[in-house]
Amino acid sequence: MNFMDEYKKKLVTADEAVKVIKSGDWVEHAFGVNGANELDAALARRKDELRDIKIRVDIGAWPHYTLEADQTGEHFIWNSWHVAGQDKKYINGKGLYYVPMKFHECPVMTRNDAVPNNVFMATVSPMDKHGYFSFGAGCPSATAAVENAEYVMLEINTNMPRVLGGSQECIHISQVDYVVETSNPPLPTLPAANPNEVEKKIASNIIERLYDGCCLQLGIGGIPNAIGTMVAESDLKDLGVHTEMYVDAYLEMTKAGRISGAKKNIDKYKQVFSFAMGSRELYDFIDDNPGVIAYSVDYTNSPIVVASIDNFVSINACIEVDLFGQVCAESVGTKHISGTGGQLDFVEGAYKSKGGQSFIAMTSTFTSKDGKLASRIKPILTPGSIVTDPRTATHMVATEYGIANMKGKSTWERAEALIAIAHPDFKDELIKQAEEMHIWRKSNR
Fold this sequence. Notes:
By secondary structure, this protein is of the alpha/beta class. The protein is built from 15 helices and 27 strands.
């Protein structure tokens, strides 16, 4: 088979490719920076011809041209597996809706439960001599979507890194219906969050519990970024990486010589991820790098796989925690903020790992819109807030005042442990509320 001949037969413009889309269709975009860009812009130009096009994304990093073209929702309606990036502009009544999920289940839901997509669109690297395109910066559920589509359309972008291996990290020309060569716009980047002094203190509390040879999963935000910086400046060695999201913190630790993967049970010497978002330097680092490999998210986030990796350490952030140990990382009341993502996957998997630790990190307080200081530790979650991690799953909660272990504790012990790491200004009120809820004993400190 001559792969280039097949490529040329399938090469069309973006406007030609989207002609196959008809009213009522479902269109699936690949994850994050692998999502559709020029194809979505072309689809937006067909607005007046189409009705009720349902678009499903997962962290839509590129501009949402079809949403911008249609403020009524009659032509295009967006649905996202996780709200971040450009999605945040359109959630909460502005044209985009959330699809609840545990991230490791996304491929199986795509294959078995979600409405089949008529069209799958993805931004990929140029084709290699064997006829393969790399999903590069993101392959969480791309293969599942390909298998579930009538038409597969690829945008070729020379800025997309080529990732060498893992599983379901690439697609062959024989699986593709249309190829579109783009203007090669730069990939969307994610600026590193600069941690404040409180976040650095939280990071230092967690760093004290790390040791040589542990395997790291970091979420996004100031605290994970602070941990990456502190690890890079530490004398820790032989750390491993197994994560859903590959960010600049890992790059910083790698350059400092802290990561080798030598102690990992599986994927030894390899840094494993499902998607990458960060700086241009990060994308360049994963390009053609045999030490960094991508897998579909049903592998990276599988609690069973995570539990099989000894000394696994999971570090994620949240919005608030109640005195029972329930964690909300998704909403403020009914106002949607992000999504479950892989947090619960890693909370459960890391705890079951031999020597494993799962941390949910947060500042003890935040400043509300009216300028008042408020506690993130609450007697009950804000009414309407989504429970991301049930109290039965939560392991350790970290603030700048310390770390509270929830496992094996009764309700009064949980309340005591959480109030101990709350901001001093709120402790008396939390104790009073715990007493009213009958989860406080006179013998408590």
